[in-house]
Design a protein that fits this description.
With about 260 residues, the chain is mainly alpha-helical. It has two domains: about 190 residues, no CATH class; about 55 residues, Arc Repressor Mutant, subunit A (Orthogonal Bundle). It contains 13 helices and no strands. α11 crosses α12. It is elongated, with a radius of gyration of 21 Å. It starts with 7 loop residues before the first helix and ends in a 5-residue tail after the last helix.
Length: about 260
Amino acid sequence: MPNFPAGASESESLRRGAPGTAVASVARRRDFDARVVHLYATRVRSFAAETLRAYAYGVRSGQAADVCDQGLHDRIIGVYLETIPLRFVLEQAVRYRGAAAILEAFAVSPNVKVDLVLLGKFLEVQAAACWRAVPPPNRVRRASQGDSIGLLDLDPAAPSVVRWDLVANLVEENAVHALLDASERVAAHAQRGLANVLDDEDLAIVRALATGVGFAEIAEELGYSRRTLHRRTRAIWSRLGVSNRTQGMVAAERLGLVG
């Protein structure tokens, strides 16, 4: 299971950044926004791919229907609920209501902005569908634990079947293809944003760590004290959204920084 964003209080602290300077605050916001956007986009990409596999079995290619077959819808929602915690689904939908604000941290093309808006609309619709798919007793219990989606202004009479035309104004299968393409483009852009938060010295440290050499040898080679190297390494892991060397190497490889 991936490391999902923590609660609102921690999220806000990340957005505020390190105290002292406006520059530090902006840098921290960029780091956090890049991680959030990358995580959301990759999860949507995974879900879109799963959905297309479901369509391969349940919907004829090119079929133009306004709504999904109920059985297919149930299978798709089941996959989604199994892979992503409900609380995270709801957090995604709420956060993506402010998609334009998130993108202010990046220099993006109009196409990427359009892609993120598409992801945002999908997340709002899908979060509502997931909420309705949860059995009422469990739904009440989750709401009592703070999982309510009141911020989404969900119409109680809204259909429980997802209308893909509300997402992309397309028939279902084409809409999912569009969603998959958009999520891939957004993920790639956020990945570049994450890579850019490391300066040349940070990259040198990451690449040295990737060789498997110990801290003492790396510190000597790069001219740091071990204490300074540990401090810089912790800062690097924080920027990459991880907490230790093992996770950091996985993140660095995924971002194309090593390997």
